[in-house]
């Protein structure tokens, strides 16, 4: 893959991830769709597009999906042979559901920033719990990021909704767990397709529980389909296709762009206001995380 193609695909993947925040926020702010229905449509459409992509790839490489074997090598492989990982599927569902419910009251920028901070905190916290240690620069970066989070959540006129923030932090923790469980997976696109499919029963249950509050319109359904099929499904395929060509440092650091893209998109497309509080918190949180990631990769 050429350098230009790597950069282009990486940029598209980051824009797709940021688009999830914009699509969720726009749908829940300006259409009639409810969060449970949005989550259902997002996960089902994501599972469908991922499944189509996986099977198309396997047909192209000679995989016989009806028997779960490779015609050329006779080996088990592909989506039919991947065992269901219900823990990962549950983490995926919790992320998607909490994400949508949080965007009832959060701006796209605030939501993306809280999500990203919670994901990184979960993964970093797990590393510390497993015995990893921070050097002085990493510790300073962590303290800076925590200070930014405190600034963002302190009570005040521009403070985000408390319960919205709690839900988005829960979504970030769930996505952090999902990401940790996916480390070392040799077929990430296939595993993601399987996890999306296994998450569908959970979202069906949520929809049944929230049936009395169900509300749909064509615009909301369209945003949910775009979030699931394009921003999620195609976005993950783009990311996993370019990930092997990125150094570990670049792969970790480039994701810092997602909250920034979401913030800019919120201002331009959703007419949101970029407050001083959010700007300061963003600089502190993203700068602190960048410092931790950079030092971690250099020392490792």
From TrEMBL:
KW Ribosomal protein (keyword) present: no
Signal peptide range: 1-18
Positions of transmembrane segments: 35-54, 82-103, 109-128, 140-156, 162-180, 192-212, 218-238, 245-268, 274-293
Ranges of residues in domain EamA: 9-153, 163-293
InterPro entries: AA-Vitamin_Transporters, EamA_dom, EmrE-like
Domain of life of the native organism: Bacteria
Keyword Ribonucleoprotein: no
Membrane topology field: Multi-pass membrane protein
Pfam family, one: EamA
Protein's name according to its UniProt entry: Membrane protein
Source organism: Photobacterium ganghwense
């Amino acid at each position: 893959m050429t350098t230009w193609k790597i950069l282009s695909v990486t940029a598209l993947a980051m824009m797709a991830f940021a688009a999830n925040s914009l699509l969720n926020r726009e749908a829940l702010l300006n259409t009639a769709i409810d969060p449970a229905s949005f989550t259902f449509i997002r996960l089902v459409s994501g599972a469908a597009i991922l499944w189509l992509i996986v099977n198309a790839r396997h047909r192209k490489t000679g995989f016989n999906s009806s028997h779960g074997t490779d015609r050329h090598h006779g080996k088990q492989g592909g989506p039919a042979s991947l065992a269901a990982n219900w823990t990962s599927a549950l983490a995926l569902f919790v992320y998607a559901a909490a994400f949508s419910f949080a965007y009832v009251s959060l701006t796209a920028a605030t939501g993306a920033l809280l999500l990203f901070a919670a994901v990184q905190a979960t993964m970093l916290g797990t590393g510390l719990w497993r015995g990893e240690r921070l050097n002085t620069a990493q510790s300073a970066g962590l303290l800076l990021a925590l200070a930014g989070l405190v600034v963002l959540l302190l009570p005040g006129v521009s403070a985000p909704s408390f319960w919205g923030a709690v839900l988005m932090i829960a979504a970030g923790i769930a996505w952090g767990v999902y990401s940790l469980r996916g480390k070392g997976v040799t077929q990430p696109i296939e595993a993601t397709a399987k996890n999306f499919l296994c998450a569908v029963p959970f979202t069906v249950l949520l929809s049944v529980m929230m049936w009395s509050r169900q509300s749909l319109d064509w615009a909301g359904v369209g945003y949910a389909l775009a979030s699931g099929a394009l921003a999620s499904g195609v976005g993950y395929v783009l990311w996993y296709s370019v990930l092997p060509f990125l150094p570990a440092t670049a792969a970790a650091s480039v994701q810092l762009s997602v909250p920034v893209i979401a913030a800019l998109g919120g201002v331009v497309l959703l007419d949101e206001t970029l407050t001083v509080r959010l700007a300061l918190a963003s600089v502190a949180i993203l700068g602190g995380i960048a410092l931790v990631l950079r030092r971690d990769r250099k020392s490792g």
